[in-house]
Amino acid sequence: MTFLIADSFTAAFSRLSTPDQKAVKASVFDLQIDPAGNGLQMHRIERSKDPNFWSARVNRDVRLILHKTGDSLLVAYVGHHDDAYAWAERRRIEAHPRTGAIQIVEVRERVEDVARPPTLDLVPADAAGERGPAGQGSHAPTPFAALDDDALLSMGVPADWLADVRAATEDGFFALAGHLPAEAAEALLDYAATGVLAAALPPLEYGDPFAHPDALRRIRPIVGEEELEQALAFPWEKWGVFLHPSQRALVERTFAGPARVAGSAGTGKTVVAIHRAVRLARENPDARVLLTSFSDPLAAELARKVLVLAPETGGLVPRITTASFTDIAGQMFQLEHGARPRIAGDALLRQHLRAAAADQGLKGFPERFLLSEWTNVVDAWGLRSFEAYAAVQRMGRKSRLGPNQRARLWPVFEAVRAALAAGRYTTWADVFTGLADALTARDRKPFDHVVIDEAQDLAPAALRFFAALAPAKPDGLFLSGDVGQRIFQHPFSWASLGVDVRGRSHTLKVCYRTSQQIRRAADRLLPTVLRDTDGLEDERRGIISVFDGPAPQVKTLSSAAEEADAVREAVAGWLADGIAPGEIGVFVRTPQLVARARAAIAGLAGESDMVTAPMSLAKGLEFRAVAVMALDEGILPLDERVADAADEAELDDIYETERRLLYVACTRAREHLVLTGVVPASEYLADFTA
Ligand SMILES: Nc1ncnc2c1ncn2[C@@H]1O[C@H](COP(=O)(O)OP(=O)(O)OP(=O)(O)O)[C@@H](O)[C@H]1O
């Protein structure tokens, strides 16, 4: 017999008290061993339209809802007595007549809270065909009115709900979507956004309705005690058990060469990276896996999430190393050289550059140009000889430097390198480059699989290092990232460094984190198609969010004091709505401005639990409510950076990265977002509200 659990069960389970959860766990483990449920007083739920629903007694008050068919037992729900029965009485579990996927369908006639809009009776079905997806006439637009039964069924809409979908208005759609299977809601949103019907999968491909990819996103077979333990250990982390079919495909697939998952903020790229790392470690008991991300806090978060997928500590978890890019390089450097690298900071570099330029009598190049040329070209690309410098393509730097200019500059950079070496200093780029050279020559690599999150911010030397760290075999290197969130790096060609993901790059389209309203507004900050240096296109249209919420607010105020009041009022409102202080983030452009954020929330309940930070640290985080403040002219884009631009191309890149910083900060918000600035405000606010 197949033993399965549904997401409706884990969600309900996570809402129970701890003692009830303990009792439920014991009963579910018993059921897994003895699906007949002896001792659980199972009986059929007579009032349900689905004859396969059964209840099982956990304790005096709590009941499990099971769905029994010939050879499967599905744990569908759990709740207090009346709630559990009511849940089962309002549902059917069946294979969808068209797609073939098992669905948990709400019986339409028993759902009272979806009011049919009055347009329903006024719109004859045959007139619908004349209306485009944009809606019609004097009534509120009904974006699906033109879709016939056939089209709606092919999207996975349950037969009971066809009329409601056709009658749904744009505003009422999300209330309705909550009653529909996720694949139907997503297909409808996609249609509303693009006006195009996605091609339906042929239904016969999946003989077993439980094996259908859309069934697996809500119902998962559980084999063995360990899997059950994992599924129940963190029931609120839905991503740990139930993946979107496009996510699952990327987790399970074998890639012959380096592969990449892309997708805008909140589409679950990190989730895919973690699942892949765990899957690879699980499949090969000897495999050593590196799961790495941009910063130490993000790496720590990866480590925490690995435990969600693999709560058992024996064997698997120790074989997955989680570390930030520089941390793993630091560890490898220590193995090679017996000590951690001593990294030169910007101040020291400026000092050496200044001294070397003076020594060489170099004139006509501002110091900021020298630092930028060193950081983004000479050091970034690990250039060691004049020949290499003379030949390098100065990516992202369009100001041309002729051979004579390069010849004058090179001795300065050479002298800086010598001065660093004399002081036993190095740079991260140098560390990465040195390690890459050493590792490339070795047959045996320290890791069998390297999985990189936040890959858009990899520097060239770091990418070379990771490529050399991973074996050149299937599933050796997997990268996850969003070009739209690249804030620390100049663009460069991955393919030129041997990391060619063309043909093995896939984009996720469903945003799980951010409400439709916030995502739409944030998307307006970026172009609809982003193209990277290797020509890979990241199409950002057609992304959908699976829930809605209040529209984001933009407030421009006449003074910093007024702005502080506005932020304070917004945050106080969130607290009054029951949002925990730890679920609130306030972001600003620079570390110095954090004081402005702290002043705005000073004295509010739970103030110390709220996160206030520069936008660059917002990467990878998420909150129920976010304020992005101090969006004043001169602060975003930041004047100092703009003034520092060494040439036109760098200026363009600065404008783009400043814009992306705002995108990153905004897309940390799940439900509420407020943007504030003092007039004259940041020019980007106009794009956001456009
Ligand atoms: N299959 C899923 N089911 C439920 N929630 C999911 C699923 N996939 C992702 N999520 C949730 O969506 C949110 C965003 O996921 P994740 O951090 O992996 O996205 P991301 O694409 O890496 O985002 P970013 O680019 O902003 O860092 C998280 O809260 C995650 O738990």
TrEMBL record:
This is DNA 3'-5' helicase. Residues 242-521 form the UvrD-like helicase ATP-binding domain. The keyword Hydrolase applies. It catalyses: Couples ATP hydrolysis with the unwinding of duplex DNA by translocating in the 3'-5' direction; ATP + H2O = ADP + phosphate + H(+). Its EC number is 5.6.2.4. GO terms for molecular function: 3'-5' DNA helicase activity; ATP binding; ATP hydrolysis activity; DNA binding. GO terms for cellular component: cytosol. It comes from the Bacteria.
